[in-house]
Design brief:
The complex is a heterodimer of chains A (287) and B (235). Chain A contains eleven helices and two strands. Chain A is mainly alpha-helical and 287 residues long. In chain A, helix 5 packs antiparallel against helix 8 and helix 9 crosses helix 10. The longest helix of chain A has 31 residues. The N and C termini of chain A lie far apart (37 Å). Chain B has 235 residues and is α/β, with parallel strands linked by helices. In chain B, the strands form two sheets. Chain B has a six-stranded mixed beta sheet with strand order 6-7-8-3-9-10, with helices on both faces. In chain B, strands 2-1-4-5 form a four-stranded antiparallel beta sheet, with helices on one face. In chain B, helix 3 runs parallel beside helix 6. The longest helix of chain B is centred in the last third of the chain and has 16 residues. The chains are: A mainly alpha (287), B alpha/beta (235). The interface between A and B is medium-sized, with 21 and 28 residues.
């Protein structure tokens, strides 16, 4: 029972981090139809920004998280204005090439500044929480609570506020949104900012139990793509459910099958689910 | 009220609009007649700022709105109800209508008043206000599209093929509503293939072919013209 609970906790931790990254990716895809491969690099920059704020400036963990979110949100907006916006009339392949170029550029910048070695963000909450017979590291519980809290806030923002509705409207019908006077540029800036902030928060949450290094975003972005394909491109509930599916599959797969196959499980699941349901789990677009 | 001068629009090497000059006076209901691909939709897309003219001007109340962003054109008072409706299919009917008033979001009282008027005009929309717009029938979706455009408080309303794909009875109802909107003082530019029905409610019309205006006249002139009767009325 204890081992099962441990895997459940691991799955939830992984799943909630994946879901946050995938949410940012799916928001940008749903609205601008850009497969932003650079999103993994934004995740990586978020981890380094938090590492800098805590390690060099001595900031509190939560302040560092807000700082990292602001830095990466700004970086994401700049990537939109300076790169993707300028390619809006170009063939889709140009967006993809530009995104890969940005990914390599950001990685090179980080490597030039901090080197290629591994870093670690000191765990702000190293305690172990015990409930009855069950044991859980506090940081994992914080990851789960913060990630789900943020998803709830995002959901309320998108469904209950007028500004949030403009993002959903743009995702459901871009021309229709422009025709009611919604400014596509403002929505695009806002979407990139949210997407970047989500990646940075995910990275800051996950860094205390993981390592920080320049190529740390590669596997995360690959899995985030698997998640949004599974969940249905552009679907917000799809990104959350997809993230959890991959998180649980990896966690239970690593324990009951082998840790060697942990990273293959996501891609095997992708092939399996898409063979049975090619349109993904939630195919009808962003909500 | 609205005047286009020498409007030219290109899609790559294809010229969709070739020097169009038209006007609509305040309170007029002007029909644009033309076959599929003649340039009616391109004309409306250019007026509402979704496509940029390569040459020419669009005057609205003495301001040149050519080159402005769609949001600025809606703000100015020109609202486009497009072909294919372009609704937000997974949002409720009510939310679709409220987003139509996005540029007037500060004035909630007036927005509520217009929403009530739209529901009065289309009682079925009030009944289905909480249903997803995408779940409605074609005719009801057209009503949402017209209602959403009205929520933008248009001084000039551009209606692109509002009767397309609708049952004859619904077409009659939709055209009746358009006539009422015009009677209430809104200038309407109506693109229609259903020439006979459109000319029943219009005072004046233009005939557009291959991106050019080939004929202009009042209702009687066009209804009696042999070419128009053959090409667009089928009689």
């Amino acid at each position: 029972m204890n081992i099962f609970f441990q895997q459940l906790l691991n799955g939830l931790t992984l799943g909630s981090v994946y879901a946050l990254v995938a949410l940012g990716l799916t928001l940008v895809y749903g609205i601008l139809h850009i497969p932003n491969f650079a999103h993994g690099a934004l995740y990586m920059v978020g981890a380094y920004a938090a590492f800098y704020f805590v390690g060099t400036l001595g900031a509190n963990y939560w302040v560092a998280m807000i700082g990292a979110a602001a830095v990466v949100a700004l970086l994401a907006v700049l990537s939109d204005r300076l790169i993707f916006h300028r390619l809006k009339d170009a063939p889709p392949l140009h967006d993809m090439i530009a995104a890969i170029g940005l990914l390599l550029f950001l990685e090179a910048c980080i490597q030039a500044t901090w080197g290629a070695e591994f870093h670690r963000l000191a765990p702000p909450y190293p305690q172990i929480v015990r409930v009855f017979d069950l044991v859980a590291p506090a940081q994992r519980l914080i990851i789960i609570a913060a990630a789900f809290g943020l998803m709830l806030v995002l959901h309320l923002f998108l469904t209950r506020t007028l500004v949030g509705s403009t993002i959903i409207a743009m995702a459901q019908n871009r021309e229709g949104a422009s025709l009611v006077g919604i400014d596509a540029t403002k929505v695009s800036i806002l979407t990139f900012a949210i997407s970047g902030a989500l990646a940075a928060v995910a990275a800051t949450l996950f860094s205390p139990i993981n390592l920080i290094y320049p190529s740390m975003g590669h596997l995360v972005i690959m899995k985030a793509f698997v998640i949004i394909i599974l969940g249905g491109m552009g679907s917000i509930p799809g990104a959350i459910v997809g993230g959890l599916v991959i998180g649980f599959a990896e966690s239970f797969g690593a324990f009951y099958v082998s840790t060697n196959y942990k990273d293959i499980i996501a891609f095997a699941l992708l092939v399996l689910i898409l063979s049975l349901r090619p349109q993904g789990l939630f195919p009808s677009g962003a909500r | 009220m609205l005047r286009l001068e020498g409007a030219q629009l290109n899609y790559g090497s294809f010229r969709a609009l070739d020097g169009i000059t038209i006007h609509a006076d305040p309170g007029e209901l002007v029909v644009m007649l033309g076959a599929n691909g003649a340039g009616k939709s391109s004309l409306f897309l250019a007026i509402s700022g979704l496509r940029k003219l390569s040459r020419g001007n669009i005057w609205f109340k003495d301001q040149n709105i050519a080159g402005r962003k769609p949001s600025q054109i809606v703000q100015a008072g020109v609202v486009h109800c497009p072909e294919g409706r372009k609704l937000f299919p997974e949002m409720s009917v009510r939310k679709n209508l409220l987003l139509g008033a996005y540029v007037h979001r500060q004035d909630k009282k007036e927005t509520q008043k217009i929403l009530d008027q739209v529901f009065e005009m289309f009682p079925i929309l009030h009944e289905k206000r909480n249903d997803a717009a995408g779940s409605l029938s074609g005719g009801q979706q057209q009503m949402v599209a017209i209602g959403r455009a009205l929520m933008g408080r248009p001084e000039v309303l551009l209606l692109d093929e509002p009767s397309l794909g609708l049952a004859p009875l619904v077409v009659k109802q939709v055209l009746g509503v358009i006539k009422t909107i015009n009677d209430n003082g809104t200038t309407v530019l109506l693109a229609e293939q259903n020439a006979y029905a459109a000319l029943q409610i219009a005072r004046r019309a233009y005939v557009i072919e291959s991106g050019r205006i080939v004929m202009e006249g009042d209702r009687e002139t066009l209804l009696n013209d042999e070419r128009v009767r053959k090409a667009y009325i089928g009689a």
